[in-house]
Every structure is written in structure tokens, then in C-alpha cells.
């Protein structure tokens, strides 16, 4: 060894890591507490599920490393869907391919999700919020989840693909069922297959409508790429189905959680009403504290070393978004909701790297504009009861968020 140099330490192997018992009841009862106890000891553990990554910096590195990718085939197999046709799960689009093919499929829709294009949806989003809320009488109690959070993303996306607004409710229901594949529970197999087949038939019908009568919409643009030879028939159907299934439920859930946290403090809601620019910080902070997606799976394509940990090819990696967002080494008082926190970091909820969620910008715009609209119209809006909270390590959302229309302070 040359003078003045040090021999680098050998990387740890997966077998060197401590074991994390993911069947411990505490993980289901209080996932944040369970993960915090483990995160304090190390950033990586092994479990029956594979490799568990718990701290923010390492979660980000694993999500952005191109040697780790989503593996839809294995995910479907664990969920009991291994014998189904690709279109029967809504998972036959961008998630199922990598490298140049992934870039090609993503490119078929990417222009419609560019920041400048997304900003053009602001007037429609605001008008839709106004129509959905209506003009309830002072003192009326409404559920923001059913009145606003659930229908808004579906109405935005039906307009984006040139579909009838009346179809939004069906899309939301299919999306809710299809996302249960990430629960990796075979008990949901039949529901997922039924929703996937319904969505596939719907997409095929919509493609034929757009082919006969093209317009200025996302699906017509994708049809143009298909006719130019950039997409096969199966790829066109798969990407369209994937976009439709992913465009509603996650946004609806994250919007509900953001409203829950912001309305919990009357002074905070008043500040938002006075300064609409605060909506962006509130949305990002809600994603950090209560992410809709608790973890994101990746699989190692090759033998890989990341942050001194050797990960063999084929290893399943569970990147914990919830744990990373609560990392005490990155965020001061991580369990506090602080929309103006100075140590805010990029959200992990949309993934990272080549598979970063293509619709992240649109989701953010929908959430922020809905916040701005409600706070401006009802500065005195208050909760009318506890929220119907659904939390697990996997998915977090609201079933209900009752609020009372104020007697005064109505803009």
C-alpha cells in the first residue's frame, strides 16, 4: 500500500445487518414509532421482505440509483396476480420497463406534465373547486373528502385526456382498487383484476373515440406518437391505463391529509388565507409528515454498493418514505407540522431517478390551488369533528374530513 493512503473499509453485506421483525404488531399499530426505534440504531436492516432502508439520505440514494428499478412482475406475483394479463392490472406501462424503453414510453406523455403546461390548468382547477363546493349555507357541515378531494383529480384528468367528466367517478374507483396491488396481499386479487379489466376496456374504447375524433388532449397526442411508430398497440394502452389509474387516488389522499393538517390550527388557516403563497409550504410539509405512500419498492438489477452496503443482484429493497421523512438527523422536531420549516428537503413520496412520478407537478398544483381557493373563500373554515383517519405502513389517507361553513369571514 502506498504511503499516505488508507485501505478503504470493506462494504457491509446484507447478512451483516440486524433483523427487523416486520410482523411485530407495533408496525401495524404505530408505524412511525416502530420505524423511529429502528432508525435510531441504523439506516438499513434485513427482514423477510428483503432490505429495509430507513434514513432520508439513504432512501434518496436508493431511489435515484439507476441500478435499482421497480419490478412489476415480482410485485404482481406477491399480490397473487402472476397469471393475469398485463392489461388486467393497470401495471403494463412505464413501471414495467427500464432504460431506453422507459425513456421512450415516458416521452410519449412527458410534454403534458411539463411545468409550463401544468400551470395552464390553474384556472380549470379553481373553477372545478368552486363548482364542487357549491354555495352551502352558513353552518352547513360538509365532508371535504367526498365533496372535493376525491372528485377533483378525476375531473382534471378526464379533461386532460378528453374523456367525459361523468367518467371521473369510475376512474377514481378503479384507481383506488388498482393501488391495492402495493399492499402485496393476495386477498385483493379479484378486486384488482376486475378494476384492471374495467379500466383496460374503458381505455380501448376511449382510444377509438380519440382516433375517430382527435383533439387537443393527452390521449390524442399519444395516438399521434403511436401512429408515428413510437408506441406499439400494447404500449399505448398500457401507458394510458397506467396514467389514468395513478392520476386520482394518490392526489385525492394527499390533498385530504394536507387540508387536515392545515385546518387543525385556526391561526395557521388564517395565515394561509392572508398569504396564499404559504400553500406550497403546507403541501410539501404535509407530504413529509404524512406521506400517502409509506414506502417505495426497488429491486437491484446488478450487484451494487451504496453507502458502504453491498446489495446483491435480485435483492428487494423497501425504501421507507415514512421513516425517511421523519429522520431526526435531517428534520428538527420531525413529528411537528411546520409549513415554514427551514430544513425542508425534497419529498420522497414521488420517488426519484428515471421513475420519478411523471404527474408529481400536476398533483402539487392541484393540492396548492385547492388550498388557496378554500382559504380565500372561507377564512373562518373550521373542522366539525375528527377526521376519518386511515393509516398503515403502506398507504395513508382520509375517509372523511368534516368541516363547518362559517357564519362569517366568508370571502
Key attributes of the depicted protein:
411 residues, alpha+beta, five-stranded mixed beta sheet, three-stranded mixed beta sheet, 13 strands
Commentary on this structure:
- The structure is a single chain.
- The protein is α+β, with helices and mostly antiparallel strands and 411 residues long.
- The protein is 46% helix and 11% strand.
- It is built from 18 helices and 13 strands.
- The strands form four sheets. The chain has a five-stranded mixed beta sheet with strand order 2-3-9-6-4. A three-stranded mixed beta sheet has the order 1-8-7, covered by helices on one side. Strands 5-13-10 form a three-stranded antiparallel beta sheet.
- Helix 7 packs across helix 18 (360-377), helix 10 (168-178) packs antiparallel against helix 11 (189-212) and helix 11 (189-212) packs across helix 13 (233-246).
- The protein is globular and about 65 Å long.
Give the arrangement of secondary structure elements.
Elements: E1 12-13, H1 25-29, H2 31-39, E2 44-47, E3 50-53, H3 56-64, E4 68-69, H4 72-78, H5 99-107, H6 115-119, H7 122-133, E5 141-143, H8 144-149, H9 151-161, H10 168-178, H11 189-212, H12 218-227, H13 233-246, H14 249-263, H15 266-274, H16 279-289, E6 295-300, E7 304-306, E8 309-311, E9 316-320, H17 321-325, H18 360-377, E10 382-383, E11 388-390, E12 397-400, E13 402-404
Parallel strand pairs: 1-8, 3-9
Antiparallel strand pairs: 2-3, 4-6, 5-13, 6-9, 7-8, 10-13, 11-12
Helix pairs in contact: 7-9, 7-18, 9-10, 10-11, 11-13, 14-16, 14-18, 15-18, 16-18
